[in-house]
User: Fold this.
Amino acid sequence: QMIALDKQYPEYGFAQHKGYGTKAHLEALKTHGAIEQQHRFSFAPVKRA
Assistant:
C-alpha cells in the first residue's frame, strides 16, 4: 500500500518512511499538509501539521 501511495503522492515519500513518523515524513506534513484519507488526525504530529 505504501508503494501505491508513494506513486499517488510522491511528495510525501511513503516508499521511504513506510508511514513511520520520520523527520522527512513530519517535514512533508508541514510542507504539504495531511491527506484526509490517509493520515490519522487524532495523532498529535498530524494535528500540528
User: Anything to note?
Assistant: The chain has a mean pLDDT of 89. The chain has one domain: 2-48. The longest helix spans residues 23-32. Residues 2-48 form one domain.
